[in-house]
Amino acid sequence: MTSKPYQLYYWPIPGLAEASRVALTLANLDWEDIAIDGTMFAEMKNDGTLPWGMVPLLQTPDGPLAESIAILRYLGNMCDLIPANPYHAAKVNEFLDGIGPHSGILDGTFSIDDKEERTRVREALFEADAKGTKSLTLLQEKISESSTGWIASTPTMNIADLKVFTHVFGLFSGNFDGIHKSILADYPQLVEYHNRVANEPRIKAHYAVLPEGSLRWTYQPNAFSSL
């Protein structure tokens, strides 16, 4: 399909692969972003291409690598986003492991075919004491505890920042029925964190030029300035 040494396979949305897409670019690797569809996904599952039956999948010169966090850790070494300090590195890993349950806020809603019902269920996730509200509240608390503004109090941006930034703010792109950016008005420190990451020079350059209608508008500076 391609002669490039790295190929990232995922659906044509930011989702679980977005942090790895950013890391691939920041590492200046020669890579291709391969958008799959349902037919291709089924073929990859049936022919054993997917080690765990899921995407994203990164093909590397040494072989395939699955699981979004494993891929991100692998790429983190190449784009210098893993701290040299062992404790800081461990805290970054702690955050990556701890955020796992919070990556599935919308799990269980994608199989709801009726749009009105799907919208209602998703809106309910962000009511008081609901799963989405608890998740955003905890993430805001964790970010507020940082002494540097970066996840895990590292001196500079790290791979956990890529994960949190792309995951949290990707939820509010308008791609998900019932999930409105106005929800973030209740989380000013999350919005402040967004501005920090979005204005980091490498991130700002990565998202500087987007096609019209791109779901990635949420990753640009001042994306939520109207809140």
Characterize this entry briefly:
The protein has 227 residues and is of the alpha+beta class. Helices cover 41% and strands 8% of the residues. A four-stranded mixed beta sheet has the order 2-1-3-4, with helices on one face.
Approximate shape:
globular
DSSP helix count?
Answer: 9
Task: Work out the helicity level.
Answer: 40-55%
Strand content: 5-15%
CATH class of the largest domain: Mainly Alpha
Mean pLDDT equals 94
User: Helix- and strand-based class?
Assistant: alpha+beta
The CATH topology annotation of the largest domain reads as Glutathione S-transferase Yfyf (Class Pi), Chain A, domain 2
Topology as H/E string?
A: EHEHEEHHHHHHH
Q: Biggest β-sheet, characterized?
A: 4 strands, mixed
Q: What strand order characterises the main sheet?
A: 2-1-3-4
What is the number of E strands?
Answer: 4
From the coordinates shown, what is the CATH architecture of the largest domain? Up-down Bundle
Q: What Rg, in angstroms, do the CA atoms define?
A: 18 Å
How far do the termini sit from each other?
A: 44 Å
For the record, the count of structural domains works out to: 2
Can you give a write-up of this model?
By secondary structure, this protein is an alpha+beta fold. The chain has two domains: about 5-75, Glutaredoxin, CATH 3.40.30.10; about 85-220, Up-down Bundle (Glutathione S-transferase Yfyf (Class Pi), Chain A, domain 2). Helix content is about 40%, strand content about 10%. It has helices at about 20-25, 40-45, 70-75, 85-100, 115-125, 130-145, 160-170, 190-200, 200-205; strands at about 5-10, 30-35, 55-60, 65. Strands 2-1-3-4 form a four-stranded mixed sheet, with helices on one face. α1 runs parallel beside α3 and α1 (about 20-25) packs across α7 (about 160-170). The longest helix is centred in the middle third of the chain and has 14 residues, at about 130-145. The termini are far apart.
